[in-house]
Amino acid sequence: xxxxxxxxxxxxxxxxxxxxxxxxxxxxxxxxxxxxxxxxxxxxxxxxxxxxxxxxxxxxxxxxxxxxxxxxxxxxxxxxxxxxxxxxxxxxxxxxxxxxxxxxxxxxxxxxxxxxxxxxxxxxxxxxxxxxxxxxxxxxxxxxxxxxxxxxxxx
Length: 155
Known about the structure:
Elements (H helix, E strand, L loop, with lengths): L6 H13 L7 H13 L3 H13 L7 H12 L4 H13 L7 H13 L3 H11 L8 H8 L14
């Protein structure tokens, strides 16, 4: 089914390749099938493809591609993608810095109950002088903390 352009099957097969379920880890194969599924609109695949691009799994780090992929998933109301896309906008990762866009997506994720986004949105939006403190970057960096050990390269 994965070879027949079925997005859910492609996503599931890719995640099996990603963690080695049923065989050896194959990050190149995982990335290939996540991209196929993401291109067909699967928000879960868009998120995981963004993670792989962000971390450089199966290829070099590609922050531009990660940001685009997180945006696609974020626009389908995925709160984790909204948080990561917003953080990339805030920090200017993968494209120019865009604080207003970051606020929009932190708010969307916060409205869906993402606690980290609530905290970041409150911190950034309540700064009336628009002079962001070093703590803002620390809070925004926390949006990526779950990616640090989410997938390990095979040894």
